[in-house]
């Protein structure tokens, strides 16, 4: 479950949503933006489709015309510009690398689990537990670094006021990190030569 949620979160671009005031340009439409680790999207929404009590444009799941482009952090090294604000590419690249390394550790952990089930070698439970626990920690660190990159983006320019909120891809990543850490700890307990409860509470010998 943790692996599936991580792949879903890493591969989607709904990590954060940036919403300017819906009447900022006094038009019938407004522009919202959302992006993830690999690409960013802008979406044109009709103001009359937005909740009247909502001050900002959005949410991005409303019907509208989308335009998505991949970031050039990993090719030409260019920063992206959204609403006159510039991304901090070093933080974005760091978040992406942490997520990729986390996926690599998950793959290693899955191989160890497969070896344990097919060959019945309990030795592979320990490296599997280490891989899954570290992957959970790294994927949570990826979210923290990504959030710092969002804050750096917002602080780069103040010409356009923006409301930002983390989206469902981050929720998937957060749940995945918690599941992977708990799963890694449980695997480590299974890999112990005897149960920790037996060490703390040894069985009493019956008197003859």
Structure explained in plain terms:
The chain is α+β, with helices and mostly antiparallel strands and 208 residues long. 49% of the residues lie in helices and 16% in strands. The chain is built from 5 helices and 7 strands. It has helices at 2-11, 89-119, 125-155, 168-191, 196-200; strands at residues 16-19, 29-35, 39-46, 65-70, 81-82, 85-86, 163-166. It has a 5-stranded antiparallel β-sheet with strand order 4-3-2-1-7. It has a two-stranded antiparallel ribbon with strand order 5-6. Strand 5 (81-82) and strand 6 (85-86) form a beta hairpin.
Structure characteristics:
PMP22/EMP/MP20/Claudin; 208 residues; 5 helices; Butyryl-CoA Dehydrogenase, subunit A, domain 3; 7 strands; five-stranded antiparallel β-sheet; two-stranded antiparallel sheet; alpha+beta
How are strands sequenced across the largest beta sheet?
4-3-2-1-7
Alpha-carbon distance between the two ends? 50 Å
What's the overall average pLDDT, rounded? 87
Counted up, domains total 1
How much helicity do the residues have? 40-55%
The geometry reads as elongated
Query: Order of helices and strands, N to C?
Result: HEEEEEEHHEHH
The biggest beta sheet reads: 5 strands, antiparallel
Low-confidence stretches: none
Remind me, CATH topology?
Butyryl-CoA Dehydrogenase, subunit A, domain 3
For the secondary structure, the number of strands is 7
Outline of the structure:
InterPro entries: PMP22/EMP/MP20/Claudin. The protein is α+β, with helices and mostly antiparallel strands and 208 residues long.
């Amino acid at each position: 479950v943790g692996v599936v949620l991580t792949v879903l979160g890493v591969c989607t671009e709904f990590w954060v949503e940036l919403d300017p005031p819906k009447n900022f340009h006094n038009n019938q439409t407004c522009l919202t933006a959302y992006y993830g680790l690999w690409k960013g999207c802008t979406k044109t929404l009709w103001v009359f489709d937005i909740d009247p009590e909502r001050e900002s444009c959005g949410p991005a799941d409303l019907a509208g015309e989308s335009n998505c482009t991949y970031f050039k952090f990993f090719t030409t090294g260019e920063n992206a510009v959204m609403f006159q604000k510039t991304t901090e590419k070093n933080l974005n690249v760091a978040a992406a690398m942490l997520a990729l390394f986390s996926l690599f550790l998950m793959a290693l952990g899955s191989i160890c689990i497969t070896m344990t089930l097919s060959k019945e070698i309990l030795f592979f439970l320990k490296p599997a537990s280490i891989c899954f626990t570290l992957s959970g920690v790294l994927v949570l660190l990826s979210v923290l670094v990504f959030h710092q990159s969002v804050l750096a983006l917002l602080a780069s320019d103040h010409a356009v006021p923006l409301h930002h909120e983390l989206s469902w891809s981050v929720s998937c990543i957060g749940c995945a990190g918690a599941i992977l850490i708990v799963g890694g700890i449980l695997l480590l307990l299974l890999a112990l030569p005897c149960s920790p409860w037996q060490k703390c509470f040894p069985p009493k010998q019956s008197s003859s």
